[in-house]
Amino acid sequence: MSWREKVLSLMQDKGISQKQLAGLSGISESSLSRYLHNEKRPRLDIVVNVAKALRVETGYLLDEDDKAVSPFNSIATAIARKGNQLTAEEKNKLISLILGKET
Predict the structure, then answer these.
(1) CA 103, CA 88: separation in Å to the nearest integer?
(2) Domains contained in the chain, number
(3) Same domain, 39 and 89
(4) Do 35 and 76 reside in the same domain of the chain?
């Protein structure tokens, strides 16, 4: 089952509209529509937000191809997108977590 099929099935099971899911996940309704109509592939952070909104594990929504993506690359992308909002201390903690070191 594809990401789209899983999300649509969960929405139906939970009685959640596309507009509601967009609000719960912090994604614009137009972006969510593009993801659900396979016009645009969602980034990992979008998949995480949708999974939280639907109260399922992120891994459930991922396709096998998505699971092959390195967690390091996903974390690096997230830090790059939000890095200007992190303090130096927060960045150091994230680096320590990635490297498996305690701070």
Answers:
(1) 13
(2) 2
(3) no
(4) no
Cα 36 to chain centroid distance, Å, stands at 14
Task: Determine the structural domain holding residue 58 and report its residue range.
Answer: 3-64
Question: Tens-digit pLDDT profile for the chain (103 aa)?
Answer: 888 889 999 999 999 999 999 999 999 999 999 989 887 778 878 888 898 899 998 888 876 555 445 555 566 666 666 667 777 777 777 766 666 655 4
Is residue 16 within 8 Å of 24, Cβ to Cβ? yes
Measuring CA to CA, how many Å separate 58 from each of 31, 49, 54, 89?
19, 9, 10, 27
pTM of the model: 0.62
Tell me if 3 sits within 8 A of 42, measured CB to CB. yes
